[in-house]
Amino acid sequence: MVGGDPNSMQRVLQSENQGKNLKLLSYSAVLLAGALAVTLGVSRMKSAPPIVGLSDIKLATVQRGPLVRKVEGLGVLVPEEVRWLAAATPGHVDQIFARAGARVKPHTVILQLSNPDLDRQLVDAELATKKAEAELANLRVQLQVQLLTEKAAEAQLQSDTTEAKLQSDRDEALQKMALGTAMNAKISRARADSLGIRVQIEREKLAIAEEARQAQLAAKQAEVAQVQALYTLKMQQKDALQVRAGISGVLEEVTVDAGQQVAEGSNLARVTGSARLMARIHIPESQSRDIQLNQKAQIGVQDRPVAGRVLRIAPGVQNGTVNVDVKMEGAQPAGARTDLTVDGTIDVDRVPDAVYVGPTLEARANSHVSLFKLSTDGKRAQRVSVNLGQVSTDGVEIVDGLQAGDPSSCPTCLLGTDTTRSR
Prior knowledge:
The protein is α+β, with helices and mostly antiparallel strands. The protein has helices at residues 6-47, 116-176, 182-240, and strands spanning 57-61, 63-79, 82-86, 91-96, 103-104, 109-114, 242-244, 249-254, 261-262, 267-273, 277-284, 296-301, 304-313, 321-328, 341-357, 367-374, 381-392, 395-400, 407-411, 421-422. A six-stranded antiparallel barrel has the order 2-11-14-13-12-15. A four-stranded antiparallel sheet has the order 3-10-8-5, with no helix packed on it. It has a four-stranded antiparallel sheet with strand order 7-6-4-9. Strand 16 (367-374) and strand 17 form a beta hairpin. The relative contact order is 0.17. The model is unreliable at 1-10, 19-42 and 411-423 (pLDDT under 50).
């Protein structure tokens, strides 16, 4: 080939290039034909109505009647009464008599504390009380003696007044019979009048002195009551060194160990009452705004419904939920125990005459959705715009867009994605 004719080589190369160009043209024609076919198929598909199987849709019939709006959530059973046992005074933990899990009664001793300073203060308070009581008794005696002395003086003055009046009457009688002088009669009268005035003053002094005595007694009695109250307090603190359960129930927790020094007010143990339990239901924050005290509720305890009422609503939100305590009405169901998982439903509102569909429709309250309304033969569906009202576990209120008796179908894929706005 190296020594060949150059013209021959040129003809060979031209023929090869022409073959390549023909192949490229044929490939382009095939791709163009394929693209046209796909475009034609898609256009025909768009023009054809969609076909959906019944297994892929949810059917619901619009109803009319009373609709109870409910909210629900999961929760646990908790005791109605929980008591923390705190230290009444600083103390030293000498002994622990009961541990967590023990069943206790009100007078069951759980811990024994000691406080030497309290023992000394108790003795001082006892002595101070005895001293104050003795001083009060002594004051009563002194005031009584003073009262008797003043009454004796008043009685003597009253006697002198009576005697002076009799003498004045006698002198006046003698003067009238010319057996006495007018001067003696005037002197006797003046003496009797003077003694009468003194008697009146003495009576007023006696009344004032009685008020003063009562004030002295009241002040001393208050002092005695003060030291008695201090002594009683120290006695109670001494008795509180034996930490008792206070209620019947279960000892849930002991927070201290033997040998530990505790401060006044420190929590020592926790006891939960076993007599009554209530349900603590966790309601989503978005559904909790209409919950009020004493609303009717139902608790599912081991698949058994128990009636109840809302007892307490937590003021704060935790992890997106609001804790609602529901008190069970009637007898407590058998098998109920602390921390048992339950479900709860609360009736928050009642619409006496509502147009609604069952709980099949999953949507937000006061929102706008698009649903499919079936024809009477059930073979075709028309998209309709529907405004929703209240949402409950029993159904969803229809504000407008559908009438009672209308069947509607909602493809699962459209639920939620077709919700456009909140009114």
